[in-house]
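Input:
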Amino acid sequence: MIEGTARTLDERTHTAPFGLKALRYIFPDHWSFLLGEIALYCFIVLVATGTYLALFFDPSTAQAVYHGSYAPLDGAHMTQAYRSTLHLSLDVKAGLLIRQTHHWAADVFVAAIALHLMRIVFTGAFRKPRELTYYVGLTILALALLEGYLGYSLVDDLLSGMGLAIGYGVALSIPVVGASVAALVWGGPFPGVPAFWSRMYIAHVFVLPILIATLIAVHLFLVASLHHTQFRGGRRTEKRLLGVPAFPGQAPRSLGLMFAVFAALFLLGGLVQINPIWLWGPYHVADGTNGAQPDWYLGWLIGALRLMPGFDVTIAGRTVIPNPFWGGILFPSVVFGILYLWPTLERRVTRDRDPHNLVDRPRDAPRRTAFATALLCWVFVIFMAGSADRAYVLVGWSYETQIEVYRVLVFVVPVVAYWLARRVCVELLRNERVAGQRHQAELEAEEARGG
Amino acid sequence: MRRLWRWLLLLFVWRATRDPAPDDGHETPPRIVPAGPPAPRAELAVVALLALAAASAVAFIVVYAVDRIPDQTQYLGLALGGAFAFLAAALIVAGRHLVVTEELEGEYADPEPEAAASIAQVVAESGSRLRRGRLLAVAAATATAAVGLAALAPAASLGPLYDLGRFTRTPWRRGRRLVDQYGRPIPAAAIRPAELFTAFPEHADPEEIGSPVVLVRLEPDQLHLPKGRAGWAVGGIVAYSKICTHAGCAVALYRTPLFPPVDKPPGLVCPCHYSTFDPETGGTVVFGPAGRPLPQLPLMIDRRGHLRAAGTFSGPVGPSWWGVRNRKASS
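Output:
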């Protein structure tokens, strides 16, 4: 039967040779190569659950009065966007499961991409010939951050409104064109024209998902076309690739991982509450709440905004660079800029222009590992600064003091991290060398005794 | 007798579900995938896991269909997540114990400079009839750029690209009454110490960022307003724009000293990035990332004892942008 199907298909499409090649495509085996796959499976869940949510969600700022099943909000004035999200969460069967799963999937999606990126950077897998794959992946990460931000902003609950206000403040702070950019996006001053909701919605459910899906396709095409990298060891060389075939070896593993990701996301969505929007209430420009925190993947940006000392750059009584620029525009631009330039910078520094199919262990390139650790720690310290208000609530540390401390740590930690990581790499390499020499010496002694 | 039948049925199912033995009659081609020993226990485990996955999926439908079941979200998640977990387990067992394990060897492809050279050659030779190639390229680039710009031009309709006057205008005028969120005028006596009161301009859109102000009552002798703002406070009541000058959130928190000798002085705090403004000194920034004071609104009391604006804000409301005046807001 299978032969019949394959033959029928081949006679119509002439794809049997390609199919055979695809079945026997070689996957080098390492757990860390599965991080990107986790992100891919999250994206599938996001598209599926997001489509379901879109069947109920109404992206409109038309004013409505709530009379649903959640009594505490009865009679509250709110937008249709928020009302329809309350409805789909509390009155549509399975609606809350799907909404929470969608939210969890977004959080895990970005986490998986971030871990995947770390794997790529720490092992030098971005080097020639895979620079394009790397740039495409980085772009997916940037788009995923924006997509996630738009997703929780659409709901128009109190937290999402505060997030949009910050987005507006950050957009305004772009030098020279900030006000025009904000005017174009919001259609006027905050909170913007009603059409702003349509703009966010089309971006969130159409433009960005299609961009991300297209880039995922390009990413996967490039991965397959160049083959995976592999770690050193055994008979693996820069030229010879060893691994399990897509079928039958890799298929059950990948599918198993896919279902495991689905399982984790739906279990989280069903059992672990996330963003209980009915507790926040509707957003109004004059309202705000304490303990406002974005989703984790924007924590580094809120940390940067909170860390900046309070000053606007002004000339002759006119503002030139408003404060949110430093944390909201410059900081992420620097981080992404470093990441985009990394392959070029490393080529400059190491003068290494050869193609690499064998990836390094982190210790094999102490300077790269040290620099990556420093960058990671820098971003992480700023991320932690964004949660200082939580630390105040949980532990009682003075918020102001914490911020003063973080303002110092931001400069100290990367330097210490660089030095420490480099030191650890060098020590590990030295230990390996010593162990190798000892092993050699023992072999020789053995031989001498025997002979 | 019944029992015997049951056993016989079971035996029959057991035998019948076995794959037919490979027929040795005709020649088989050489193997591509290497052979391996059977693993009957793993096979049964996979069957059991698949059955559990099916059962979980059915449970999901049952929970969905039966309204009486409480905690729908939790049970739905458990059932669907469980179904996927059993599927995952089945595949992982199959991958570890049932599927033939083999290590294949392959080669990384080399670059093909000849093909690249041929591409360049095809392009070059295709243009061999051209005599003004460079001019043509410039013309093509110009046309592309112009058409691209034309395609982008309608994007300017999205917003007021140059008319930024709306960004600085607020509804506040001299004499405009302050009202609460229900539109009722506010008697000055209603503003009590240690409380944060939100007010809006009467007959204006409360959802404009120029609208909301916060009112707090301080000790009149504690007020140290900047020069030129004498008389902006009435009976110790001061009004500031509620929109943070950092990133536009509502300044929704009010820190008041419980015991003034040791506690921090009063502060208007924005919960987004914790910019803290001092209401006693004209909304100056005492902590956090805000780069300029909260704009202050001058107040007066009308004959009925209600609060009214005595003018416009001391500066532009909300987050700043390139070129905005740091001082007085227009009205």
